[in-house]
């Protein structure tokens, strides 16, 4: 097989022999040179994930797999500063709030958007300002909570969708904690603080953990949810107790990035400032199901149900597999050509395994939808940004049946077509793919990367 004989440090030009479309590798090699891709992996490799940030105040509150470090945001704003008296920053896919926490610490107004209501809650609780009166009140509730007793009332019926995910006793206890919060704490600010603490421990209290493309089964490491909740509350309280006061507006909204321009108008009305910079990490083109991974928190929080969750996905950027009877063509030739390459590889894989690969058969439509949605976001960003405003996209490359998807190059190409100038692409670290793919297509190990695409509106 040709792919086995490619150099381990393969470039796009080296892939010329494995594509049926012989111009495809040349096209991406041309973009690689045109956009001045530089390697800063020594500096950025630890900033494009939560490996270090996950131990820092505020960022450590919840386990959010797809986050990046707040220090990454600070570095970007150091290199490309805004006028904080006249401008604000937006993160249209804010996740657990790294951009907003960093912006707050820099005294910059930041607007965050997300369709994951759990992420919106986490971001807003992290970015709230807590006065000395607030701290005293929260501490009082924490002290009261430590004397909570198990209720004789069975609240688990309200969460029958989740019974199979928890040990029976743990589910009963977390349901009673939930009821205590709702019946005891009237002030929304304090209630949200406690609800976030509870939602943050659900994974530990369950028989599941976030893994792969959803939830994997494993025994719960927690036998006493009340003690685990107390630990979580103490940790979160210690962080808000030492925070400085920042007179800024850092707000997260339950709002789709596909309607970014509407949100920008709202933030301008709130702050009387214009949009100076956009920093975000979109879902990667890797079929990861964000709603499935956060199903426990979303259902327990009352944000959705097991039946409604599929409908809720329609607000996401289409990075998930979805079956469609007719394949809609993407406007970009390079996207269509990649889809064709994948389709041509599938019969070969199925012949080797003797099994129909239904999942990979859905990938071409996923890619078409993904890049179409990202084009919408990029276009709305261009229309909403100030002149000379910047947009920075942190994104991962992926691969299917040995066909690499150069997401950063394609997004830069889309942005250039919209009107942006591509200021550069920074290679931050190598990207991962499945062990099966790496074994069969070893060139992917050096080719795939996670990067920052920087764009300027002129």
TrEMBL record:
* InterPro entries attached to this UniProt entry: SAM-dependent_MTases_sf (IPR029063)
Q: Which Gene3D superfamilies match?
A: Vaccinia Virus protein VP39
BP terms from Gene Ontology: methylation
**Could you name the domain of life of the organism this protein comes from?**
Bacteria
Q: Which UniProt keywords apply?
A: Methyltransferase, Transferase
Any one Gene Ontology molecular-function term assigned to this protein's record: methyltransferase activity
* Organism in which the protein naturally occurs: Salmonella enterica subsp. indica serovar 6,14,25:z10:1,(2),7 str. 1121
Which protein are we looking at?
Answer: Modification methylase
């Amino acid at each position: 097989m040709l792919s086995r004989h490619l150099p381990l440090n393969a470039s796009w030009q080296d892939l010329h022999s494995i594509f049926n479309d012989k111009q495809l590798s040349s096209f991406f090699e041309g973009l690689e040179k045109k956009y001045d891709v530089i390697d800063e992996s020594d500096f950025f490799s630890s900033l494009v994930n939560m490996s270090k940030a996950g131990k820092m105040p505020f960022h450590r509150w919840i386990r959010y797999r797809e986050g990046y470090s707040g220090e990454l945001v600070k570095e970007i704003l150091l290199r490309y500063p805004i006028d904080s008296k006249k401008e604000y920053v937006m993160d249209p896919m804010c996740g657990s709030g790294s951009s907003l926490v960093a912006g707050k610490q820099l005294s910059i107004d930041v607007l965050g958007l997300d369709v994951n209501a759990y992420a919106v809650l986490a971001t807003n609780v992290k970015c709230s300002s807590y006065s000395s009166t607030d701290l005293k009140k929260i501490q009082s509730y924490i002290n009261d909570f430590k004397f909570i007793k198990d209720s004789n009332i069975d609240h688990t019926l309200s969460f029958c969708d989740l019974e199979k995910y928890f040990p029976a006793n743990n589910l009963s206890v977390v349901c009673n904690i939930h009821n205590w919060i709702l019946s005891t704490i009237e002030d929304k600010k304090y209630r949200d603080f406690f609800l976030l603490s509870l939602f943050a421990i659900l994974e530990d209290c369950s028989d599941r953990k976030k893994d792969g493309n959803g939830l994997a089964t494993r025994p719960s490491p927690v036998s006493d949810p009340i003690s685990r909740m107390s630990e979580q509350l103490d940790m979160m309280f210690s962080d808000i107790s030492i925070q400085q006061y920042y007179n800024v507006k850092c707000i997260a909204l339950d709002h789709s990035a596909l309607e970014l321009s509407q949100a920008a108008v709202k933030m301008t009305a709130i702050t009387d400032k214009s949009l100076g910079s956009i920093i975000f990490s979109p879902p990667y083109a890797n079929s990861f199901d964000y709603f499935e991974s956060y199903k426990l928190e979303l259902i327990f929080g009352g944000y959705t149900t097991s039946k409604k969750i599929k409908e809720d996905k329609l607000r996401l950027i289409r990075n998930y597999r979805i079956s469609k009877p007719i394949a809609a063509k993407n406007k970009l030739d390079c996207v269509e050509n990649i889809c064709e390459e994948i389709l041509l590889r599938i019969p070969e894989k199925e012949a080797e395994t003797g099994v129909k690969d239904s999942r990979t058969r859905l990938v071409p439509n996923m890619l078409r939808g993904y890049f179409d949605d990202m084009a919408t976001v990029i276009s709305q960003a261009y229309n909403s940004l100030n002149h000379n405003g910047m947009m920075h996209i942190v994104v991962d490359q992926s691969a299917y049946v040995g066909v690499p998807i150069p997401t950063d190059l394609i997004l830069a190409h889309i942005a250039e077509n919209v009107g942006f100038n591509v200021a550069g692409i920074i290679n931050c670290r190598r990207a991962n793919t499945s062990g099966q793919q790496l074994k069969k297509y070893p060139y992917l190990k050096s080719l795939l990367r996670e990067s920052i695409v920087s764009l300027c509106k002129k």
